[in-house]
Amino acid sequence: MKNIKTKYWQYVILAVLAGAVFCYWLFLFPFIPVGREMSQLFLWTGEYFTERIVTFGGLAKYLGEMISQCFINPVNGAIAYTVIFIIAQLLSDRLLRQCFPTMKTAYRFVLSLVVPVVLWLLGMVPSIPLTLTVAVIMVLGAGCAIMAIPKAKRLWVLLPAMAVVV
Prior knowledge:
Structural class: mainly alpha
Helix content: over 70%
Radius of gyration: 18 Å
């Protein structure tokens, strides 16, 4: 039993925090996700997709608007914010583990909570779209993917990617 406690303590804390995030958005502030959904128009058409995707940051904007479509129901909005919180924490933890392999697990866990907490606070401002949150998660995912590539091959992956972006 002691081995389980020492091995999986961070996942237990993450589950408790995810429950707290869910209860926070469902019981204390259910009107913010609902208001966020009602303040925008999202269309499920190809023209709307191409209109969004051609602009800078268009994919993050499109995905943020698509995610916020489920906010009309407060339970779905709370679930979506909880999943966003968990994904941001897990990606931050993985990126910290890849960049700083000798860092203690407790310090890494506390540092990996900074990004989700900041995104949670930004989610409290209804005028800030969900685009920023989706963009941060996309950058964390890209950072984890790039760090998984061996150092000798990173340049050969990044050069074509930079040529496409520029």
